[in-house]
Structures are given as structure tokens and as C-alpha cells.
Amino acid sequence: TYAPKLILLDISDINCIRDVAKEILNCYGCVDILINNASMKVKGAVQSISLELDKKIMDANYFGPITLTKAILPNMISRRTGQIVLINSIQGKIGIPFRAAYAASKHAAVGFFDCLRAEMEEFNISVSTVNPTFICSYHSQPPSANWEASMWK
């Protein structure tokens, strides 16, 4: 067994994900199970959400998990074993009003991991997506002048 190691990671910061994956692999040698369980959401009408915020949601919910997965994947492929799990959302299957950016990012993630599942079968790597219905999340309440005022993390 290995002593646990805490590594802080902002999944929306794509530039640091590869370094974190490298640090994990250097510390433990391999990853047997990767669970992608980070998310960010915003509630608002399409016309009221800035493109900047749309991109931040996409970075956290789509590019973050796929960047981390791609960084860990070569190690799993070389060992011909591993399990990758995406904790996603029912909104990755069904969109609802006032959640366009969130639903779009979750749809994209489902599409990516569905394709990955088919590609990884030959390497004995299991890829699963879990799409729970609505869950209670932590809601940050920064000052209302901040665009993150309606951000859920």
C-alpha cells in the first residue's frame, strides 16, 4: 500500500494538468483507476452568459477530464489494464433551459468517453460514464458584480 498524497488541481486549468499527471505517475508508477469527478455549472439564459464563461465551463467539464485522461492513458495502455470513470450528469443526455453551457460540456464529455470506450476495449481498459440526475452541489456566492456569482462548483 502507498501513503496517500494530496495534490491540488484546478481541473479548468488545462496547462497544469499534464504536470500533475506526471507527478502522480512519478510518485506511484501507475494509475489503476481514474475517476473524473470535477464539474462546474452556471444557471442563466444563453444570451446572458458570456462566451468567456462558456469557455470556462467547457474547460472544467470537457477539456479538463479529457486532458487528464490523455495524460494517464499511455501508462494504462502500456500495462494493458486500467479503469477510467467519468462522473457526468443526466444533462449530458438531455438539455434543460438555462443550462446550455453546462449541458453542452456534458454532452461533449459523453461523446468523447463513448468513443474512448470503444477504442480501449482492445487494451483491456474499461471506460464508464455515470450520469446521475440532479445532485446537491456547493454553490459559491461571490459579490454580484463578479461573473462567477451564479457559478456552481
Name the beta content range: 5-15%
Order of helices and strands: HEEHEHEE
CATH topology descriptor of the domain at 31-133: Rossmann fold
**Count of helical stretches:** 3
What value does the average pLDDT take?
A: 87
Could you estimate the helical fraction of the residues in percent? 40-55%
Per CATH, the architecture of the domain at 31-133 is 3-Layer(aba) Sandwich
DSSP strand count:
5
What is the overall silhouette? globular
Based on helices, strands and strand pairing, what is the structural class? alpha/beta
How is the topology of this model organized?
Blueprint (H helix, E strand, L loop, with lengths): L13 H15 L4 E4 L4 E2 L8 H29 L2 E6 L12 H21 L4 E6 L20 E2 L1
Parallel strand pairs: 1-3, 3-4
Antiparallel strand pairs: 2-5
Family: Belongs to the short-chain dehydrogenases/reductases (SDR) family.
InterPro entries: NAD(P)-bd_dom_sf (IPR036291), Sc_DH/Rdtase_CS (IPR020904), SDR_fam (IPR002347), SDR_family_member_7C (IPR052148)
Organism: Tricholaema leucomelas
Describe what you observe in this structure:
Helix 1 packs parallel to helix 2 (51-79) and helix 2 runs parallel beside helix 3. The chain is of the alpha/beta class. The strands form two sheets. Strands 1-3-4 form a three-stranded parallel beta sheet, with helices on one face. Helices cover 42% and strands 13% of the residues. 26% of the residues are buried. The mean pLDDT is 87. The protein has a domain at 31-133: Rossmann fold (3-Layer(aba) Sandwich), CATH 3.40.50. The protein starts with 13 loop residues before the first helix and ends with a strand. Keywords: NAD, NADP, Oxidoreductase, Signal.
